[in-house]
Task: structure prediction
Amino acid sequence: MEVSGKSLRARTIGRHGARLTSISAGLGFILILHSVLFAAIASELAPRSAVVRAGPVPGVRFNSGLTICDEELRHGRWVSRYWESSGQIVADIQVDAEREQMDALPVDAFKLEIEGQELSGTWKWIGASQSEIQNSESLLITVELESRVRPIRVKVQTLLSGGPVMVRWLEIRNIADRPTAISNVSPWAGQLWHTPNFAEKLPPDSENVYDIGYAQYSKWGYEGAWRFDPVVNETKVISGERGKSGWGHPTFFAHNNATGEWFVASLAWSGNWKIRVTSKVEKSPVDRSDSVDRPVNEARLFFDMGPSSVDPALRVIAAGETVKTPETHILCMKSDLDHVTQALVNHVRRDVLPRPPSEHVFDVEANHRGYIVDHETEAGIEREIDMAADIGAETFLIDAGWYGPEPNRWYQNVGDWYAGAWLPNDLQPIREYARKKGLRFGLWVEIEGAGAASKLRKEHPEWILTRDGLPIANGRHLDVGNPVVAQWMESEIARIIKKYDLDVFRIDYNMSTEEDGNQVREGFIENSSWRHVENLYAMFDRLRVQFPGVIFQNCAGGGGRLDWGILRRFDNTELSDWMRGPRGVKILNGMTWLLPPEILLRTFGTEVPDLAGDGDIDYQMRQVEMSLPIFRGIAPSPAELNPILRNKIRAGVDLYKNDLRPILRNSLVYHHTPMTPYFNESPWLVLEYSTPNKRRGVATLFRTSDLGDPVYQFVPRGLDSSATYKVTFENRVETVELSGLQLMSQGIPVRLEAMGTSEMLLFESLPNAKNR
Result:
């Protein structure tokens, strides 16, 4: 990921880190009451509506929960008038006073460039409509516009679900009789904030009105490392350039330091992307335009975001064809960081993830990888199944290495999806053995790849993705945008699911295409990414319908595709398979800003080298218990599994099933240490989850270095101040009864002397008069 912008003073970043800690803290009785009230509001289905204005200046006011977005067509531009997070409608007279000034500002609410021509200023009104979306309790508002200079019609689609997040995409139709091409598009853009009189609310001489947060790394093993920078009279550009959404994330956080309000915008897109955030800050000592001396200070923040390409055409549109852009999800909210991230996570649960096919989506999983990957035998995999059943796993998945023409070459064999000669009886006996042991059965496939040893690559060299006619990604990447290739992929997945009667199907994607491929189409040089993503999404949409009981798992070298576009098609997803402390738990901490912990697959076992040296068994177990556990490489055989370790794992699995899994489902997530450096020491990492009714909760405190005080005063945030709780200290297997008010005002001292250790606290409300 590339990030551009002015360099920043370390002391500014330090102040911001302290401010974020203050924002997210839950100390004090007043904040406790605020949290309870907010949770009550957020948990209910809030109103969603739209008011369509006709006349010479048509427009729409969108309302979802307390969030309002008002847009209009002015001088051929579809522009954003204002956003408001308090539910209060701004009077027209106030907006009208700004219209002339806003005509010169980048307030277009979407951007579209066709064959290099920006169409802003060319739109005319066709109409608007509203429709209820079945089974989702959402309202879809459609605004239809047509360009006066190009034969292009656009439907601006906005989805309202009653929460603080709105969703926008465009449907672009070519009404000409010849092809044309999208060269740039931002499905949602415009002005986020106009902040007058900011100097009254900031420290003296400060112009730091807005801070922008983004994932600062885009490589394996570093997702979730958020960083906030001030943006003052500059444009910050954040991009993903791995040929996929990347281990970074196509999301930015914007915090208004003068008002306490937040914007979060996320592009649901699995290809390359670019975000631009621009601030304009004006501050002068005195305005003498009238008899009263008054300071002039106002700030504005603008943005645009969308898919990106180094080629002239993002997507060629045939005559009469309609193309759907990626979705943009925008949250507008005034609250603390905890409640912002809770709103995002709940939005993903309710409005992004598919409906789970069964409760088995949250099964404890075991995986054959670890000791016998690339050395698979039927007997060896059965030994792994024996261990999986013994520790209490519920699903067994065969990972890479089961397929292809040559032994011990899983990476080069991809593309030939038949059992290798080293499994002469195929996989059916292994599947039946797993089921006999009470385990569900799943299989790993990297469907977008064609390895160097595969027959597929030799028989279909024309299926390999190219740039300027030359293979890219080591010649290993299929041209998924080719409809023939996409059809083969879909039929191959369906064949595999049917042949092996799968309960779980997992994809992986161990390639980065950087600039991606391209081809000449209808006279345009078109980048391959759009059609790749388009075809990938469509095939999994159809496969989910064809196999409604199958659980579909997402993996891309771990966390290389975690955007909300791919996750709309998958039930759970793996983060980077880097579980070593402390970075492994920092990845979980960062990604639960955007994703529910119960869908995030994390590994315990020896697959990762030297994992055992980075924390004791409890530390290693708890980082997977705070997510969705996978066990990979427990021991070479059941006889070699240390009985003490076995008992530890069995106890951890039982704890997860009986106590933690019910909490994780629909949990409220509290980040007590939201900003944790990845390359420097930080003393503690603390995560807390609670049920929405606040009757149960769990907090895990990880000692991530020897820095600082060995005692952490833990103050829970997810409890009910009027209830009484049984608190269990897992390290000592001790319980104590304390009031919620005492816990949330005084806290609990937790002492951990050594790095690589942890404590887990369980909270369960007692049946007192309040809860009976």
In short: The mean pLDDT is 91. Residues 643-664 form the longest helix (22 residues). Residues 138 and 161 are 4 Å apart (CA to CA).
